[in-house]
Amino acid sequence: MIGPWKRMPFLRKMYSGKRRIWSSPLENQIKAEAQQWGQKPSKHLIDASWGDAHRLGMKPISFVRQVTAACLYPELLHSETLPVDARKRAQRLLRECYGGSVGAYSAMSGIPHVQRSVSDFISRRDGGVPSDPDNIAICNGSQSALLVILKLLSYGKGLNQTGVLAPLPIYSLFKLMLTTQGAFMVPCQLFEEEGWALKVEELRRVIQATRSHCTPRAMYVINPGNPTGHVQSRESIEGVIQFAAEERLFLLIDEVYQDSVHMEGCEFISYKKVLFEMGPEYSDTVQMASLHSISKGFMGECGLRGGYMELVNIDPPVMNVLHTLLATVACSSLIGQIALDIMADPPQEGDPSYPTYLKEVQYIRETLAWNIRLAQDVLGGLPGMTCQPVMGGIFVFPRLHLPSRAVEQAKVAGMDASQLYCSRLLEEADLCVEPGCEYGQREGTHHIRICVLTPTENLEEVLRRLRVFHLRFLSQFS
Fold first, then answer.
1. Helices (H), 188-261
2. Residue in 467, 445, 443 with CA at minimum distance from that of residue 400
3. What pTM did the predictor assign?
4. Alpha-carbon distance 155 to 178, whole Å?
5. Which ranges constitute the DSSP H helices of 229-315?
6. Which residues, other chains included, contact 217 with Cβ-Cβ below 8 Å and sequence gap of 6+?
7. What are the backbone angles phi and psi of residue 251, rounded to the nearest 5°?
8. pLDDT higher than 80, residue 19
9. Is 307 in contact with 137 (CB distance < 8 Å)?
10. What tens digit of pLDDT does each residue of 246-258 get?
11. Could you report the per-residue pLDDT of 136-146, keeping only the tens digit for each?
12. Is cis: bond before 130, omega within 30 of 0?
């Protein structure tokens, strides 16, 4: 007998065209429904839909947990169970906290020491391009930082309503964030057949077409991309900056996957670095906020909540308004700020913790690179599925070439074919992935998003289940 957690009404609710908002993780929700009916799923559910590395089995960096543990429980400062450099880092950070406690508030923009650490990190990353700690705001993750900027930029109604250009596919939460702030999303398409390239010609076409119903004031770019995994070249970034300067757009640059570039010959270059290397015509005029976080990349600390935004070319009166907006949400988590400090200033060669830190980081990066290649090889070898090369990030976003019968059945059921595919995948294989329609895929195309930052043995099981299901699905609808 098929349990209630597998019945289509529940799946349609999960995979409606609207953003899913869960009060608990999916696995807990399904288990709760099963328990209510005195049944249990036939297999262990795997949820590969979230970009949550620790939930998917990756282990935290020891130094991060050692330092945060000592900050939370200062008795550990005197314990030799922790490396001496971890204890010293905790002591230094506690001295920067009011009352010497992580239970106290910090300044609204963050602990000044952490702002300096982030500023130094940015300058090192960008080859000496200056970064001012006063232009760094620490927030509860990059999304909190983005919301603050959107509050500042979003105003007006009708033709005067703020429009924000957003290259698609893009994670669906962004559109929800714009809606809550009263802004309008101006979609423009990435070019899948060219490796998800971002083309300025498309931006020009879209911005002209959209002036009849809003006023474009900003552009949001994720680099490396989510869900596409595309990494922009210097030439591409220069084109976007020139376009922003011409159209007087505020650049919102999400760079949370900057530490996850794994294609040989490909490198991450920050928008800030390119902006300043383009000279004063741009570096003195283009307004920008760049975002980074401890949630993604090798740290994967989604639950600690720590991120920053660096603000470029913002007038002092506007900065004052930004600080006021930050004050309305109070300071960010001090534990997240401590983890952010470690991301910006990790153990160095010669430190007691360095060998372990290096080994752990290398394992995570090598696992991710291997998993990307494995996923591309397996998915690219399946009939009815293609996958563009993944340059960076922690997701693969393969395209489904589905039989017409499957597409028609999905239409009859009032859903996109990618939703039908994902609901059947969950129902038949206890495997949860994201349907591509949640990301704004081009009309007539269908995709799925899979997080691959997980131990390789987990990914192998994900791919095994997906392969068996996919071949059966094609056979059923052919």
1. 200-210, 234-247
2. 445
3. 0.89
4. 11
5. 234-247, 271-277, 280-283
6. 153, 162, 163, 164, 249, 250
7. -90, 125
8. no
9. no
10. 999 999 999 999 9
11. 999 998 888 89
12. no
